[in-house]
């Protein structure tokens, strides 16, 4: 099945098929990935991807899946166009930093007006007893910080707004 997804802010066309061994074959950007998943007793999922194991927490909403691991932090995978046609990502995705899951702000490393570089840590959030550092997706100026330390927020809440540098 061909679908279009927004993964970490970039659109990808993905083809997923079931393999004969109960797993999946995933083709993304011309690269084939063999994968399978299994549930763990603590609620995480263990993914076997090209011979490597990854244990992650998975939270799903209507159009998104959020994967969180201690190694990579949180990743949102959003369905842009389930039918696989020419779809568009949500407007302003690069101008806002949205919550990948509900939680609490643990630390804010920037203030309104600060200039930031791509990959710079902006905020640390906690959800399900796991801390996740959120990074700047691009070079920008911080236009607004919507939640301070100790504040709680919901799924997909706008945490920070970015403006062109």
TrEMBL record:
Name of the top EC class for this enzyme: lyase
Domain named Lipoyl-binding: residues: 88-163
EC number of the protein: 4.1.1.70
Keywords, alphabetical: Biotin, Lyase
Domain of life where this protein originates: Bacteria
N-terminal signal peptide: none
GO MF entry, a single one: lyase activity
Keyword Chaperone: no
Matching InterPro entries: Biotin_carboxylase_complex (IPR050856), Biotin_lipoyl (IPR000089), Single_hybrid_motif (IPR011053)
CDD domains (UniProt xref): biotinyl_domain
Pfam families reported for this sequence: Biotin_lipoyl
PANTHER family assigned: CARBOXYLASE:PYRUVATE/ACETYL-COA/PROPIONYL-COA CARBOXYLASE, METHYLCROTONOYL-COA CARBOXYLASE SUBUNIT ALPHA, MITOCHONDRIAL-RELATED
Protein name (record): Glutaconyl-CoA decarboxylase subunit gamma
UniProt organism field: Hydrogenophaga pseudoflava (Pseudomonas carboxydoflava)
């Amino acid at each position: 099945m061909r679908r279009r997804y927004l993964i970490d802010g970039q659109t990808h066309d993905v083809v997923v098929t079931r393999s004969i061994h109960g797993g999946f074959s995933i083709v993304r950007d011309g690269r084939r990935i063999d994968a399978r998943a299994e549930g763990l007793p603590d609620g995480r999922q263990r993914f076997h991807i090209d011979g490597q194991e990854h244990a992650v927490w998975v939270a799903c909403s209507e159009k998104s899946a959020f994967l969180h691991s201690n190694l990579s932090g949180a990743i949102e995978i959003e369905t842009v166009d389930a039918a696989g046609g020419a779809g568009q990502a949500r407007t302003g995705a690069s101008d806002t930093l949205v919550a990948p899951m509900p939680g609490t702000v643990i630390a804010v490393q920037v203030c309104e007006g600060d200039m930031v570089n791509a990959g710079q840590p902006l905020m640390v959030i906690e959800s399900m007893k796991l801390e996740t550092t959120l990074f700047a997706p691009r070079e920008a100026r911080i236009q607004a910080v919507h939640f301070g330390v100790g504040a709680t927020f919901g799924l997909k809440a706008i945490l920070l707004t970015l403006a062109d540098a």
